[in-house]
C-alpha cells in the first residue's frame, strides 16, 4: 500500500508540474485566459502551494484587474505568508488600487523576509518604497538601519545601487544654484522645453519613425572617393540587410518552411538591432512568435531588445516566466543564459535573483 500511495503522489506532482508548465507557456504566448485556467488547475491539484495563486495574481495585474489580483495574492499569502512574489504582488496591487498604506505594509513584510534571506540590497529597496508610500518614524529608522549595513558592502554593484537610491530619499542632495546665463547664452545642460523623459516601463509608439541618422566619417584622402556617397549611406545599407533577411524569412513562411522562417526572422532582428533599430528588431521577433512561441532563443532576444528600449519591467517579466519554464523542464543551459543576462542587466530584480540563486 505505501508504494501505491507513493505512485499516486508522484502522479499528482507530475500533473501539477504539467499545469504550471502550460500556464507559463500560455503566459509567454500572451494567451492570458489560458494561463489563468492552467494556473487554476495547478492550484486545485496542489492546494498547499502558493505559486499558482501568485502566478494568477501576476496575470490579473497584467490585464488591469488589480482587485482580483489582490484576492489571488491574499490566497497565496494564506498558504505562504513569507512568499516574496506574493508580498511584492500584493504591494503592486494595493498601489494600483490607490491604497498606499496597505501597499507599504506589504513592503514592510517583504523587506523583513528579504533581510532574513540575506538579500540586503533588495530588503533596503523594499523598505525605501514603503517609506515613500507612507512616511513614518519607524520606517525611516528601518531604512536608516539597512543603509548603515549596506555601507559595508563596498564593491557590490547591487548594494551600491540600493544604497544610492536610499540615500537619495534620506539625504536629499542640495544643489547649488548655477549662475544666471547671459541673455543670449543657452544653458549647456538645459533640456528642450517640450522634451519629456520616456517612461522606461512602457513600450513606445511603434508607429513612430525609427530611422537612425548617422554621420559619415573618413580620412581626408578618401574624400574624392566618397564624393558621391551620402552621410547616411552605411546605415541605409544596414537597414536593407535587415529588410532583405526579413523578406526572405516571410517568403519561407509562405512556402511552409517554418524552420527557415524562424532562423531568418531572428537573423533579421539581430541585424536591425546591430543597426540601432530596436523597434524593427522587435517587430521581427513578434512575427516569429507564432512560429515558435516557446523558443528560448527568441524570448531571450526579445528581453534583450526590451532592455535596449529601457523597458525593464517587460524584460524582467519575460525572463522570470522563461526561467520558471526552464526550471520545470530541467533546461540548465537556458536557465544559465537567463541568469547571466539578469546578472548583467537586471542585478536588482529580486525575482530573478531568487530564481538564479
Describe the structure in your own words:
The chain has 357 residues and is mainly alpha-helical. It folds into 2 domains: 161 residues, Serine Threonine Protein Phosphatase 5, Tetratricopeptide repeat, CATH 1.25.40; 124 residues, Tetratricopeptide repeat domain (Serine Threonine Protein Phosphatase 5, Tetratricopeptide repeat), CATH 1.25.40.10. It is 68% helix and 0% strand. It is built from 16 helices and no strands. Helix 3 packs parallel to helix 5, helix 5 packs antiparallel against helix 6 and helix 10 packs antiparallel against helix 11. The longest helix has 28 residues. The two termini are 38 Å apart.
Keywords:
2 domains, 357 residues, Serine Threonine Protein Phosphatase 5, Tetratricopeptide repeat, 68% helix, single chain, mainly alpha, 16 helices
Radius of gyration: 25 Å
Q: How far apart lie the N and C ends? A: 38 Å
User: Which geometry do the CA atoms define?
Assistant: globular
Question: What is the name of the CATH superfamily of the largest domain?
Answer: Tetratricopeptide repeat domain
Treating each run of at least 4 consecutive H or I residues as one helix, how many helices? 16
Here the CATH topology of the largest domain equals Serine Threonine Protein Phosphatase 5, Tetratricopeptide repeat
Q: How big a fraction of the residues is strand?
A: under 5%
CATH class placement of the largest domain:
Mainly Alpha
Question: SSE order, as H and E?
Answer: HHHHHHHHHHHHHHHH
Broad structural category: mainly alpha
Please summarize the sheet with the most strands.
none
The total number of structural domains is 2
**CATH architectural grouping of the largest domain:** Alpha Horseshoe
Query: Which spans have pLDDT < 50 for at least 5 consecutive residues?
Result: 1-5, 173-240
The count of strands amounts to 0
Assign a percent range to the helix content.
55-70%
Mean pLDDT: 76
Amino acid at each position: 500500500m505505501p508504494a501505491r500511495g507513493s505512485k499516486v503522489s508522484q502522479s499528482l506532482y507530475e500533473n501539477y508540474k504539467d499545469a504550471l508548465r502550460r500556464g507559463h507557456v500560455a503566459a509567454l504566448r500572451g494567451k492570458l485566459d489560458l494561463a489563468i485556467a492552467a494556473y487554476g488547475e495547478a492550484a486545485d491539484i496542489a492546494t498547499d502551494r502558493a505559486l499558482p495563486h501568485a502566478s494568477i495574481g501576476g496575470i490579473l495585474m497584467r490585464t488591469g484587474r488589480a482587485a482580483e489580483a489582490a484576492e489571488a495574492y491574499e490566497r497565496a499569502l494564506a498558504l505562504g505568508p513569507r512568499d516574496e512574489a506574493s508580498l511584492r504582488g500584493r504591494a503592486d496591487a494595493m498601489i494600483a488600487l490607490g491604497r498606499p498604506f496597505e501597499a507599504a505594509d506589504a513592503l514592510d513584510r517583504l523587506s523583513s523576509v528579504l533581510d532574513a534571506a540575506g538579500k540586503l540590497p533588495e530588503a533596503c529597496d523594499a523598505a525605501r518604497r514603503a517609506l515613500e508610500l507612507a512616511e513614518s518614524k519607524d520606517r525611516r529608522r528601518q531604512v536608516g538601519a539597512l543603509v548603515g549595513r549596506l555601507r559595508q558592502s563596498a564593491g557590490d554593484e547591487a548594494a551600491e545601487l540600493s544604497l544610492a537610491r536610499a540615500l537619495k530619499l534620506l539625504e536629499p542632495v542640495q544643489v547649488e544654484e548655477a549662475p544666471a546665463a547671459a541673455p543670449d547664452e543657452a544653458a549647456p545642460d538645459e533640456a528642450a522645453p517640450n522634451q519629456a523623459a520616456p517612461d522606461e516601463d512602457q513600450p513606445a509608439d511603434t508607429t513612430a519613425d525609427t530611422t537612425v541618422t548617422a554621420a559619415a566619417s573618413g580620412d581626408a584622402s578618401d574624400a574624392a572617393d566618397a564624393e558621391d556617397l551620402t552621410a547616411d549611406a552605411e546605415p541605409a545599407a544596414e537597414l536593407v540587410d535587415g529588410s532583405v533577411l526579413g523578406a526572405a524569412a516571410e517568403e519561407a513562411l509562405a512556402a511552409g518552411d517554418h524552420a527557415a522562417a524562424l532562423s531568418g526572422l531572428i537573423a533579421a532582428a539581430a541585424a536591425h538591432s546591430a543597426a540601432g533599430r530596436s523597434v524593427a528588431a522587435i517587430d521581427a521577433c513578434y512575427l516569429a512568435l507564432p512560429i515558435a512561441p516557446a523558443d528560448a532563443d527568441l524570448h531571450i532576444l526579445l528581453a534583450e531588445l526590451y532592455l535596449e528600449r529601457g523597458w525593464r519591467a517587460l524584460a524582467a517579466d519575460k525572463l522570470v516566466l522563461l526561467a520558471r519554464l526552464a526550471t520545470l523542464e530541467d533546461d540548465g543551459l537556458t536557465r544559465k543564459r537567463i541568469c547571466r543576462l539578469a546578472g548583467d542587466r537586471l542585478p536588482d530584480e529580486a525575482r530573478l535573483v531568487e530564481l538564479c540563486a
